[in-house]
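Same chain as my last thread, 755 residues:
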Amino acid sequence: MMKRRYLYMFLLSLCGLFYCTGCTENMMSAGEGTAADGLVVNFLASGGAVVAEGTVASDDGLRENVVKNVDIFFFSTDNKGEVARYYHREVGENGTVLLETGNWKSKFPAESYDIYVVANFHQYDDTSTPETETDLSRIKTWTALMALSDTDPDIFKVEHDRFGNEEVYTGKKFMMDGKKEGWTPGEGTDETIVIDLARAAAKIVVNVSYTDDFLVADRTIVDVRKKLVRYAQDVRVLAEADPIPILDLYGDADGAGMSTSNYTEGSGVARKDVLYAYSYPNEWGDNVADQETYILMNIPYKDGSQGDLYQNYYKIPVRISNTAADLCLKRNTVYTINVTVDRVGNQEIDKPVELTPKISIAPWKSENVLVGGDTYKYLIVSEDEIEMHNVADTVVTFFSSSAITVTLDAAYYVDKSGNEISLKDNSSDWYSVDYDESALSGGLKIHSEVPEIVTARYFTLTVTNGDGMEKTINVVQYPLEYISGVPGLYSYVEQYINNKGETVTVNGKWPDNLKNRYSADIREGLDGHIGTNPYMKSKFYWEGVIYRIDMSYKDSKEYNPLYVTPNTPADNNRMYLVQISSTSEKYTVARPKMEGTGVGSVTALGEENNRLVSPAFMLASNLGNIGDVNWDKARDNCKYYVEHSIYTVEKADQLEGKNYDSKGHRRFDDWRLPTYAELQIIAGYQSTQTVVMDSVLTDDYYWAADKYTYLITAAPKPTDNQIPTGTDSKSDGKVRCIRDVTPEDLKELRAHNIR
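reply #2:
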């Protein structure tokens, strides 16, 4: 069974761990620092001890922790312009390298250093390349290191892969990188620096099972073969470097270079096949046809002992949803795919049948084994951060030194106001976990009904064994469509067109008579962005209330309610984030076309564009309330609208090409008019999903992107095919701006627990 295979590989890794470390004391010191004779660096592979080249037999394991050599760069923390010290070393059997002996501190002036490590740089193995191009001593600057790339033509191969009549592939190694910031030499003469290495590759694991709908009577599987299509073999060596701008992809969708499955057990409907593959990161986004990475699988079979051999091709996508953030392969990440073959594929390789997988993703990390007394105590789970996308079941593999118990510690969703609503008391209605309570290894079969409300469900499991060890598993479960909220802090428009057709710039200062009121973040953020716009007032959120501020009362000497006026009852500061994965009969999921580029672009005209729905969009909060305007003013309002997040982002984490105020509040300035289809969806959500979305379309008419069209919110008719048409003279329409959400946006939002 699969769990025995996992256990076997786990025990092999333990053997390798003990072999490379020599004794218990040294193994324990891998995470705590080792006794050093000079300056030593000790390496971990994503948390587990590295294994030196040659210390693991060629037929054991997948060699995912093997490190042959390392290149180590020291930069002054205060000035990363040039390399301060550089070392190239072979890794010792105990996962360490000796950098300096004797009076080594004289080579490190009393200052702080940032240390960067490149492990297993593949070009050292390329005999066809001049040594001057592979020797990393040529890297003299921070800029050059950031631009350095690794190329591994064998990245897709798995240890022990067999391709046709070729010899079994051996000698796998993974390029890794790691860093330690702010290191300063200690007081003693001996010192060990511990650095965690992370693999640059992504790992794909496909678990294939079968039903009797495919394995009918007398049908036998001859073989299972796989090929990774459109994989990347080039990558920046440092995780923090910008990706390669134009990435070449390899692996054509043909029969050349298919390898056998990596593990098979059982027969008939009890048969299980496991396929592995690797790739460097690849982001394909909307370009599925040309850049998507996927598994091409062939399961040749015979019907009857004398039957003909039939080729049988399937496509297995490596995507958990159609959301932009999920259309990619990320470095040091494991993609576990469970797929069931329940029908015959296609005999033609260029027309494979696409199977529907259940996919989970998790960081690719190893686990240290804790040693106590004369026995080994351990508790390992295959995943501790899980995302479930429109599926009800997932499996987590565990290994334990004693019997385990699993408890549900927390479960909740976030409502329309940002409150966590507990689901723990009614967990029996939607949650269960099945496992063998006496087993020391196996699977935690987690079942969680797909949420009926359109928002994510969050729940936390704690796995505890008899040795007192614990592991926490955090799960986020998404329905097909889901809503979350991004809190806003303040808003304004940068300019507008008045009734005379004149362009008016909004640049008023924060008033002196209010200099001590409200927060400094609000005062500094709105300073220079207050005006006399009759349509859209500058606004801010303070202590649960949205306020309007208007320079038309600039002569007021004392605080006056007319100067700063509550926006009540429209006090919801949440910018609702809507993510949609499926196309319906009434609309198509695709980014609407735009006129212009960047900030200031507008939604393109046309009925066809008006039927598109962005797969991820953000709706302006009540900080974007606006008076009655005609269509042209509505379009201009969105074009020049700005709303700042309430969360802040540290300077080092701010996204390139995005704007932040002096306090780090993210500036959202790329708003547009929604399409008619998007307005329909919003109107439908606010009437049917009141738990997670407040009423945001509260007036009778809201302008859509196509010229002079609007949604009648009094009767939204989300299934209506007809677009009511307004006129040029209509001036009583409202506007609610939206913006397209990028994968970079989602990464930032998730970092602030907004999903």
